[in-house]
Design a protein that fits this description.
The complex is a heterodimer of chains A (about 180) and B (about 160).
Chain A (H helix, E strand, L loop, with lengths): L2 H22 L2 E14 L3 E6 L6 E2 L5 E6 L5 E4 L4 E2 L7 E6 L5 E10 L5 E8 L2 E2 L6 E4 L5 E13 L10 E8 L1
Antiparallel strand pairs in A: 2-7, 3-6, 4-5, 4-12, 7-12, 8-11, 8-13, 9-10, 9-12
Chain B lengths: L2 H25 L1 H5 L2 E6 L1 E7 L6 E5 L6 E5 L4 E2 L6 E6 L5 E8 L7 E8 L5 E5 L5 E12 L6 E13 L1
Antiparallel strand pairs in B: 1-6, 2-5, 3-4, 3-10, 6-10, 7-9, 7-11, 8-10
Classes of the chains: A mainly beta (about 180), B alpha+beta (about 160).
Chain lengths: ~180, ~160
């Protein structure tokens, strides 16, 4: 083979080599993105004082209502039923969770007082909480809040006498 | 200098040039013609109230960005989740394999189980379309323990693409 032919052969071989390298190379790329998550402290709710409407004398006819507010005042509407002053207790609940967060609190009566004695309304800080729309409160900088429970009880003439207890489910959720 | 010797030197120079060019081509295949990514939506597991007892697993769906909660704990997912989107550009009609990983968040009580890419596995093989593009959608699985550190956390989501 002459010198020029050798050079040509070398060039061809080199080009083929480059082409072969190019066609068999594994092309790869990497990229870094970002993933996020926000973790909130779980909410706790603790009963401190049980709500108590106190001593109520049923009306002789019809139905009377007795409403307990967060200040401990009982308001009577109706006929001749009566409430004994000073026997009532405002319920209180402590919450802990993520500082500064708004919290919804909803309530449900799971078992009522007795025949003729009905817990019709439950309030937390004087916000109705058992009618589909929750009451709200805000956790302070330390992640704490408290809520005062009141409500309304309806008492019929002929209601079952005695001490009665109702059960209430309380659910707190972050907004 | 004779004409023959001069031509010979030129040929040698051409050979040397081609060899050097070949070496450069061999040394830089991935960056010279490699695919490119662009993150167009960041992955977010959303807001999670850590469990007070037990453990919960949160699966972020790669397609719709919704989170499904499972496990023995009482954790609550409060929304705010989104899947991750990456646009990939490369050679049209080429078959590629893309793999995804999510690093751990670096906070106690949080463990990233796996990443999902266009399915429920951590890798996906597909063909780039006629324009050389593909939309990679990323989900994943996160386990949250009672000890999870409150706060906003972020970590790296890593994609690797290979094609021949």
């Amino acid at each position: 083979m002459q010198k020029s032919a050798k050079v040509r052969a070398g060039i061809v071989a080199l080009i083929l080599g480059i082409a072969a390298v190019g066609s068999s190379a594994v092309y790869a790329a990497t990229e870094t993105g970002t993933a996020h998550v926000e973790i909130l402290t779980n909410l706790t709710i603790t009963e401190i004082d049980q709500m108590d409407f106190g001593i109520i004398a049923m009306p002789s006819t019809g139905t009377d209502s007795f409403s307990l507010d967060s200040g401990g005042t009982v308001t009577h509407t109706g006929t001749d039923g009566t409430h004994s002053p000073g026997t009532q207790v405002v319920g209180s609940y402590d919450l802990t969770g993520e500082p500064g967060r708004l919290v919804d609190i909803s309530t449900t009566v799971t078992s009522d007082f007795a025949a003729g004695v009905r817990l019709t309304e439950i309030t937390l800080d004087d916000q109705v909480s058992n009618a589909g729309t929750p009451a709200t409160t805000t956790l302070d900088a330390g992640g704490a809040a408290s809520a005062l429970m009141g409500g309304t009880v309806e008492v019929d003439a002929g209601a079952t006498t005695g001490a009665h207890t109702a059960s209430i489910d309380i659910v707190a959720n972050y907004q | 200098m004779s004409a023959v010797t001069h031509r010979s030197r030129i040929r040698r120079l051409v050979c040397v040039g081609l060899i050097l060019g070949g070496l450069v081509a061999c040394a830089t295949p991935a960056t010279a013609a490699g695919p490119r990514f662009r993150e167009v939506k960041q992955l977010n597991f959303g807001k999670i109230v850590r469990p007070s007892q037990g453990t919960n697993t949160f699966t972020l769906h790669w397609r719709n960005g919704q989170v499904v909660t499972s496990g023995s704990g009482d954790a609550v997912h409060l929304g705010g989740s989104s899947n991750g989107h990456f646009v990939i550009r490369g050679r049209p009609n080429r078959t590629v394999t893309i793999s995804a990983t999510i690093d751990n968040f670096g906070a106690s009580g949080l463990t990233v189980r796996r990443a999902h890419i266009n399915g429920t596995t951590s890798f996906h093989t597909t063909m780039l379309d006629g324009n050389g593009t593909f939309l990679a959608r990323i989900g994943g699985v996160l386990v949250v323990y009672t000890t999870a550190t409150p706060g906003m956390h972020q970590t790296d989501l890593n994609l690797t693409l290979n094609y021949e």
